[in-house]
From TrEMBL, chains A, B:
<feature type="domain" description="HTH marR-type">
    <location>
        <begin position="22"/>
        <end position="80"/>
    </location>
</feature>
<protein>
    <recommendedName>
        <fullName>HTH-type transcriptional regulator</fullName>
    </recommendedName>
</protein>
<keyword id="KW-0804">Transcription</keyword>
<keyword id="KW-0805">Transcription regulation</keyword>
<dbReference type="InterPro" id="IPR011991">
    <property type="entry name" value="ArsR-like_HTH"/>
</dbReference>
<dbReference type="Pfam" id="PF12802">
    <property type="entry name" value="MarR_2"/>
</dbReference>
<keyword id="KW-0238">DNA-binding</keyword>
<dbReference type="InterPro" id="IPR052362">
    <property type="entry name" value="HTH-GbsR_regulator"/>
</dbReference>
<dbReference type="InterPro" id="IPR000835">
    <property type="entry name" value="HTH_MarR-typ"/>
</dbReference>
<dbReference type="InterPro" id="IPR036388">
    <property type="entry name" value="WH-like_DNA-bd_sf"/>
</dbReference>
<dbReference type="InterPro" id="IPR026282">
    <property type="entry name" value="MJ1563"/>
</dbReference>
<dbReference type="InterPro" id="IPR036390">
    <property type="entry name" value="WH_DNA-bd_sf"/>
</dbReference>
<comment type="similarity">
    <text>Belongs to the GbsR family.</text>
</comment>
Amino acid sequence: MRMTPMIESFVCHFGEMGSRWGFNRTVGQIYALLVINQQPLSANDIGELLGISRGNVSMGLKELHSWQLVHTTHRPGDRKDYYQSRGSIWDMANRVFEERRKREIDPTLSLLRDILLDEAGNAEEAYAQERIAEIHDLLENITDWAQSLQSLSPEKLNTLMKLGSGVGKVLEFKDKLMAKKAD
Amino acid sequence: MRMTPMIESFVCHFGEMGSRWGFNRTVGQIYALLVINQQPLSANDIGELLGISRGNVSMGLKELHSWQLVHTTHRPGDRKDYYQSRGSIWDMANRVFEERRKREIDPTLSLLRDILLDEAGNAEEAYAQERIAEIHDLLENITDWAQSLQSLSPEKLNTLMKLGSGVGKVLEFKDKLMAKKAD
DNA sequence: TAATACTTTCAGAAATTTCTGAATATTCAA
DNA sequence: TTGAATATTCAGAAATTTCTGAAAGTATTA
């Protein structure tokens, strides 16, 4: 593989983005490279293409493994490991979401719950607890909901997304029906 | 205000989380403090409570202003600026989402579009473009959808969230009706 | 068993981000 | 105006994160 300007700009940008999604620049770039390359790449290939050390490649791949975003494959008569991105782009988005939930949201929810179990020592703490409860509920609602969406079939999810704010209409409709049934 | 252990643990944790949401630890902590404190705080109060320099507080507040997450208020006969968190927790989540879209997603979409406009120079680039198109479409779908959800009334949004994966049922139902109408 | 071909680890170097505090700017009352 | 009270800026210090490369580890073959 060669680093054409097109590929390079994509890989670089994905590196920057990576850090927003919970992993560092190198990890983002390695992943970008593997996503847009149909053939698996060896760790040496990756290091050369990105101009980074062999050790760094190893650490980056380890991280991507822990996110379950890459696959190791082999070639007959070749001892090297070859790496490939794993699953579709959609799978990737799901996995990033899932991992971040596990690593960030869950611990936060748990801390907030602990705080809410404590008795407020004064009016200030009572007010603080109210606000913390709001944050807790919002976070819990959103993650629960996101998780239930993840369990929807891709087609249904797609219908839902295409519907956009039109989903409001469908909800009104559903409410009317429920009201009739209740008669 | 005093930093009780309860408040301290919340503020610290929010600091850590902050960096995941696009701003640094201090900014997260300042915001946390303002959210759980009913009374507005002066920049000096904030610096003392968090044990950080006056300059750092100033920079943090500037950042929070740019995210439109704080408000400045005044007291008669007092020259100091007092700061308060702005809007509900829900507003805050919306604003963080909105800002991140502007600062991160939009530039990415624009780069991906540019790449897709280029002619692929060879089979490798053609494959890369296919994958990049997938990423582009996914990102665009999700952000468009998220934006249309933001325009929904809070009650409807709440209904939708409560519905969870049950939204699948409602969609099926809608499809059936549409089919009948088409007859 | 030893030699080879590769991968992983991790101490410290390099790069980046964040923070401090002195200097500067702003605002307002007298 | 001037001066007192406050806010902001920014160069460099401190802290943190990331990266390198030499050493150690692991398989495989001969």
